[in-house]
């Protein structure tokens, strides 16, 4: 009697597959940075309004992820890092992912407008459009600057959170946007340095593919140098404080040191140790953003309890 092998293409999608379609890891970062943007704003927000707003921002982020997976299913299928995603693995049909993405986009924008204000909803709508259309459809497959320009999509959430609270934008929300925007290229290029073969196979014009690893190393170090003053500058605004400033100083010193190490290395050295320095820099970049926004949250919490920070 022959054995029956059940593959991803043979079984029906479950809740976990649909949840994975929304890119929960990316969604978690969106939720956190949007929440911090809302909390550090100078205008208090009713807890119910805040909870609903963060929920709809999260749904909007999930919608972007679903639309991205629908569009990128062909290249996801040939990249080891993404081949097991719901659409390329066949667990969720492409047209189903599209329908879910469009439906959730409309729901998130309309409900955020009702729960908060039109500016916040407009920023969320533009973020979804930017990620799904400008980045995924137009930039990702056409230019090595895809990550640089496309980084704006991931940088909007704290600005949206700020808009929920204040109904406007400010220097502070613009700097939170700039922090994420400037962090994105060295974060993804550090990954691309040791995942170059994936982008080669998928024919995605990542900088490592179009210009090589040497140029990519130069860019990683250059963007890290530009990132540091932006990050530290936030500490001298109304949302900054000693906790943030100390955290940022340490993190940027470590990030600069890691980028310097990556910049100095040649390919034989990197290949010899399996791109250890590049992997270390990528791991550091993951905690870099979380700890910056976490420090802003700590300073805001201390201020709310009347603790004199300066």
TrEMBL record:
Catalyzed reactions: heme b + (2E,6E)-farnesyl diphosphate + H2O = Fe(II)-heme o + diphosphate
E.C. number: 2.5.1.141
UniProt entry keywords in alphabetical sequence: Cell membrane, Heme biosynthesis, Membrane, Transferase, Transmembrane, Transmembrane helix
Keyword Transmembrane helix: yes
Gene Ontology CC terms, in alphabetical order: plasma membrane
Membrane topology: Multi-pass membrane protein
Subcellular location(s) per record: Cell membrane
Any GO MF annotation of the entry: protoheme IX farnesyltransferase activity
Pathway in which the depicted protein is active: Porphyrin-containing compound metabolism; heme O biosynthesis; heme O from protoheme: step 1/1
Spans through the membrane: 26-42, 48-71, 92-112, 118-139, 146-168, 174-194, 220-237, 243-263, 284-302
Single GO BP term: heme O biosynthetic process
PROSITE patterns, per database record: UBIA
Subunit structure: Interacts with CtaA.
Function, in words: Converts heme B (protoheme IX) to heme O by substitution of the vinyl group on carbon 2 of heme B porphyrin ring with a hydroxyethyl farnesyl side group.
Additional remark text: Carbon 2 of the heme B porphyrin ring is defined according to the Fischer nomenclature.
Similarity-based family: Belongs to the UbiA prenyltransferase family. Protoheme IX farnesyltransferase subfamily.
Name this polypeptide is given: Protoheme IX farnesyltransferase
Organism encoding this protein: Psychromarinibacter sediminicola
């Amino acid at each position: 009697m022959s054995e029956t092998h059940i593959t991803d293409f043979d079984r029906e999608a479950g809740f976990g597959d649909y949840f994975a379609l929304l890119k929960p890891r990316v969604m978690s970062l969106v939720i956190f940075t949007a929440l911090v943007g809302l909390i550090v704003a100078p205008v208090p927000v009713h807890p119910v309004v805040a909870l609903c707003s963060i929920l709809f921002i999260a749904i909007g982020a999930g919608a972007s992820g679903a639309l991205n997976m629908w569009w990128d299913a062909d290249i996801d299928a040939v990249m080891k890092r993404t081949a097991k995603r719901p659409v390329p693995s066949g667990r969720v049909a492409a047209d189903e992912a599209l329908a879910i993405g469009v439906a959730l986009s409309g729901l998130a924008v309309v409900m955020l407008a009702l729960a908060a204000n039109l500016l916040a909803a407009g920023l969320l709508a533009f973020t979804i459009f930017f990620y799904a259309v400008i980045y995924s459809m137009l930039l990702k497959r056409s230019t090595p600057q895809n990550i640089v320009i496309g980084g704006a999509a991931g940088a909007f959430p704290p600005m949206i959170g700020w808009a929920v609270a204040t109904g406007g934008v400010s220097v502070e929300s613009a700097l939170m946007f700039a922090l994420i925007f400037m962090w994105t290229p060295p974060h993804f290029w550090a990954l691309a340095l040791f995942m170059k073969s994936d982008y080669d196979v998928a024919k995605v014009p990542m900088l490592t593919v179009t210009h090589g690893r040497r140029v990519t190393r130069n860019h990683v170090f250059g963007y890290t140098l530009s990132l540091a003053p932006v990050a530290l500058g936030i500490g001298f605004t109304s949302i900054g404080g000693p906790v943030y400033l100390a955290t940022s100083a340490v993190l940027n010193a470590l990030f600069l040191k890691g980028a310097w190490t990556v910049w100095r290395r040649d390919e034989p050295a990197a290949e010899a140790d399996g791109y250890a320095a590049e992997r270390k820099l990528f791991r550091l970049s993951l905690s870099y953003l979380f700890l910056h926004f976490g420090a802003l949250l700590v300073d805001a919490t201390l201020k709310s309890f009347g603790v004199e920070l300066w």
